[in-house]
Fold this protein.
Amino acid sequence: MRWGNLTKFLVIVLAILAAASYYMLPLALSIKQGLDLQGGTHVVLEASDTTEAQVNDDAMQRVVTIIESRINELGLTEPIVQRQGDRRVIVELPGVKDPEKAIEMLGRTALMEFKDENGNVVMTGKDLKDAKAHKEQSGQNMVAIEFSDEGTKKFADLTAKNVGKRIAILLDGQVLTNPVVQEAIPGGKAVISGSQTLEEAQKLAILLRSGALPVKVDILETRTVGPTLGEDSKAKSMEAFVIGIAAIVIFMLFFYGVSGFVANVALVLYVLLLLVSLKMLNATLTLPGIAGIILSMGMAVDANVLIFERFKEEYRNGKTLRAAMDAGFTRAFATILDANLTTLIVVAVLFFLGTGPIKGFAVTLGVGIVLSMFSAITATRYILRTLIHANIIRSSKVFGVWGGER
């Protein structure tokens, strides 16, 4: 018996199991959850033609970009915004506590106009560079706006020509403020007053920063997914996950003995690394994402099965345990690599051509496949080699009930 290798084996196994028991649950709970797991709001928007603007592909792309910008400005957790057909946009807002306020921001055209006393539109929101809300010392809520270089020239010319006159600033046809110009303003900055609260001023600033929608957009459907339904989906998913893990552990122990135990330890390491990766990627976990995790776990087990079967074949052909193990891993590697590469090609197609939950499935499956190859080929091999080098087990214990005795 070689105590150094045995000690190394025990330290590795205990370290992996201890790290998993301490970090796995907090990591799982800290990963962001999608609409189907935590509830939220599902909104369908539809663009329509007007006399001012017609719906086309370019306009719809800009609608999606602007809505994404508005939602991100609100600080919502990993929203999903995607086109559906030629005129519709699907928006999912996970975990929204006040969906009405969020929905109110989505469909607003947010067309900003500067009009002189004669009602002529001299400038629009396209001339803006930035907009920020703040509260002045007097307690008044204001929105400070800054113009682009071209907008600065237009605003300076507008104010110079209208000293002593009123300039109306409108949003979607509603007058926000209608001040009298005291003097020309060449600096390219101005303020909009009239907001009752700081929150109202902040929403106005968001709308101005994100820009106006190029076409008219109506809210066609609003559906709330309650947290109870989300919790129910999560509970069923976790139940399936636990049952799957238990079945895998029992299967590997029964058919592959000590090798199966080592594979199970490597599987625990795989799950831990996957959770760390999803956390670092700031991924959002959805039901399809959980399906991707479970599928990649199955592929990890499949890789171990291929390796152990080759391992047994090599041992039955007269090789020692150490030589049989090395040969088994070497022979199985090409098959495992080919199978995983073809799956990764499918994952790439799903990620680049899919949307929403499909991308989530592709991300978890892709990351899972890469990590499963590491756990099956590198981690399992290293731990098993350390154990075999300790010289404390016979072949029947290594190979389980379907032993590899010659």
In short: The mean pLDDT is 81. The CA atoms of residues 163 and 183 lie 6 Å apart. DSSP finds eleven helices and 13 strands in the chain.
